[in-house]
Amino acid sequence: MALRMEFLGTGTSQGVPVIGCRCAVCTSTDPRDKRLRSSVWISVGGTRILVDAGPDLRQQMLRSGQDRLDGVLLTHEHMDHVAGIDDLRAFNFAQGRAMDLFGLPRTLDAVRRMFHYAFTEVRYPGVPQLNLVPVEREPFTVGTVRVMPVEVKHHDLSVLGYRIGDLAYITDAKTIQPHAREQLRDLDVLVLNALRIDPHRSHLNLSEALNLVEELAPRRAYFTHISHLMGTHAEVSRNLPVGVELAVDGLVVEADAPPISRR
Question: CA-to-CA distance for 209 and 167, rounded, in angstroms?
Fold first, then answer.
């Protein structure tokens, strides 16, 4: 059985093009240079998982044609990763149940503050129904799928990446400690953030991401959370090693799926 992952968005917090920018990337006519905020959709058997729910969620769901969702994995609480949570209510209405959101306790506390109206004792009709499920370093299940959290650092902020079977998704990382690197060995697919060419204090740049790929040696690697400062998709892709690609919105990849949990 295969795991199927669709890149819903591959851009950084501002998306690409950036409002008001006239650089070569933002004015490019290449559709590969149009990037919504970063998120992926993962399907394993009958289980469907969303990683992050950014401000472009509604547009991403309509474009992808999704109509059912079993759970949301949150990497952290920055707005480009959580601002679309209100739109999860469409799945509440369709499925008749609260949506499970998995994340660090700190991240879930932030969700509770940002979307306070969804957690009041007397709720306005139609607000999202959210079931907050704290996770830290131990594996957990979504539907029938086993998920391994992988803690990385976004400057000084702990952020969760996730490994499912032979696929791992890491975003907004700057440093990955040795224990987390061990969790990222023997991968079929590694998704890793690569913000731009120049160094950044809280994100991997292109050379740092390439160095990590060389060390971890996945069979395939895809870079995401890409800004307009990276350069155009065409020019950057020409210089990438075999087996490494810049992800694009709408790209679908498959990997080996984990065994189904029989809880």
Answer: 17
pLDDT digits over 51-80, tens only? 999 999 999 999 999 999 999 999 999 999
Q: Give me the architecture of the 2-250 domain, per CATH.
A: 4-Layer Sandwich (3.60)
pLDDT tens string 242-257: 999 999 999 999 998 7
Beta bridge partners of 152: 159
* Cβ contacts of 179 within 8 Å, gap of 6 or more: none
Alpha-carbon distance of 154 to 176, in angstroms, equals: 9
Taking alpha carbons only, the member of 124, 119, 151 closest to residue 135 is 151
- Encode pLDDT of 164-212 as tens digits: 999 999 999 999 999 999 999 999 999 999 999 999 999 999 999 999 9
Task: Tell me the pLDDT of the chain averaged across its residues.
Answer: 96
Read off the pTM.
0.96
Quote the DSSP letter at residue 87. Answer: G
pLDDT in tens, 210-223: 999 999 999 999 99
Token pair of 4 as six digits:
């199927």
Which residues, 6 or more positions from 161, have their beta carbon under 8 angstroms from its beta carbon? 75, 149, 150, 151, 152, 168, 169, 170, 171, 173, 180
pLDDT for the residue 245:
98
DSSP SS3 for 212: helix
Sheet holding 244-246, edge to edge: 140-142, 145-154, 157-164, 167-170, 189-193, 220-224, 244-246
Whole-number Å distance between alpha carbons of 174 and 122 = 41
Backbone φ and ψ of 199, nearest 5° = -60, 155
Residue 124 is classified by DSSP as -
